[in-house]
Fold this sequence. Notes:
- By secondary structure, chain A is α/β, with parallel strands linked by helices.
- Chain A has one helix at 2-29, and strands spanning 33-39, 42-44, 47-50, 54-59, 71-72, 92-97, 101-106, 114-119.
- Chain B is mainly β.
- Chain B folds into 2 domains: 77-184, no CATH class; 205-450, no CATH class.
- In chain B, α2 links the parallel β1 and β2 (70-73).
- Classes of the chains: A alpha/beta, B mainly beta.
Amino acid sequence: MLKKRIAVACTALALTAMVPVALTRAQSSLPKSKVVKVRDNFFYPDSLTVPKETKIIWRWPRSPGDVHDVYLTRRPNGVKRFHSELAASDYSFARRLKKSGQYTMVCTIHAEMSMKVKVRR
Amino acid sequence: MMRAISAAVVTAVLLVPTAASAQENYPPPGDPGQGPKGGQGKAQKFRVCKQGCRYRTIAAALKQADGADTIRVGRGTYREGLQVVGKRYDGLKLIGNSSKPGRVVLNGKKLKRGAAQNAVLVNGADDVTIRGFHARNYKANCFFVTNADGYTLDRLVAERCGVYGVYAFNSKGGRMTNSEAYYNNDAGFYIGQTPPQGAKKKRSLVKNVTAWGNVLGFSGTNMKYVTITKSRWYNNGTGIVPNALDSEKFAPPEFNVIANNDIFWNNFNFYYGAPFEIPGDAAAGFAGYPIGVGILLFGSQDTTVENNRIYGHYLGGFAAIPQLQLQIEHGDDPKLLEASVLRNNVVRGNQFGREGSDRNARDMAYNGSGTGNCFADNVTFSPNVPSSGSTLAPCPGPAQNTVDDAVLGEILPWATEGKPNQPATFEKYWIKNPHSTVPGVQPLERFDSN
């Protein structure tokens, strides 16, 4: 009985020890995300370097400011253009960037408002 | 959005380097189009109503319609955010109740995400008509047209939208008529970033509209070729504000006409409380708006202000100042520097102070900067700034106006000393004169939710 208990405990211990390793491996393969704040009249941050498959989430403020959107202009070959709603508050927009290269996003209302994302290979 | 200058802004502007390449990838709506292509097929009529129609939502009818078509919407409240996007919709007519817009309501309350933003967004579709709707409670704008060559926004009511009531951006040849905007937390009506045009200009018309209870009655950032006439602007924070800003393309505002309007009692100190949410980022550099001005030219060129009736303002009836922020921030950019200057503006034939029965604190204020600016045949009952009138050159305007530096010292604090968290600071320079009676209108200086 004792041997059995010891055996169970050892197995449990071994499993427990394996969990962090497995978790770490799972976490490293999980796609990442980055939040970009949309404000009057800027994106924050306005420059990012991220690995492939990173999800970029643009988040508008809770309180109303001016109207902004996210419009993809410069992009790697083969990437489809995207465009968020023209929104003022309580809104978010997300896109996963799957292809490496340089991306430039702007607000179509505010000429000064742009940001760049470099997606690493 | 009209921005006021604050000491904080000026300081920040000096500290923060400008993004030189910010405009390099700006999308291409420089020319909103060449006019409508027209519907591709035979015009159809769509009927939307709550019961007994083929379509119960306007969005469902929009999916089937194209530009030759007319969508008629019956009485009721529709909880939708409508999108009229693309050339397919050139010429579309979306009609509610022309005589009683209040019977066809677009309500953004409880809508989520994108649908909650704009009651009607027209983007890249020319000559679309929106008529006979009452929109309220959208997080961005009530009625919004962008990238359009021609639009008709008629018989609309825009209430409690998060930014603008009735808004046209990067568009030309439009009409905003017979409409009302109130309790919007930026401007009731707004025309921004009008593209420059060739020899044949397509002017836009704002006529027979009413704006009250907004932060600004009318804002015009870099707007061009716009006539604002036969309209009423009252009980806003500020009445009409053409302005030059670097946040949008094509500065300055120019070739505009503000004629034959009633502009009165724009003294609404919304910082004490309002039926809308005040933007919370004033501390980041936006000081707030001067409250108590009828018409403020914050940079303008070739603009005519004539035959308006302007009265009952606690700061001033009319004021013109160069866009100093552009001068400070873009001193090395000849185009923006030029856009900051007041040139060839004509202020004539305006009746200030309602024959003395409802005087402005000051009638006209101008620092004398720029060229070709002139004043003629205005009837005044209050002091001007400067009181000597030395900057108010007769028409035609001189090759070089005469500057009085003391004027900016007097009127800039109207904008720079206001602190949104201390509403009384916006009233520091107020001079209150008794009001006359205007049938059907009560002065709104502080909002009472009861």
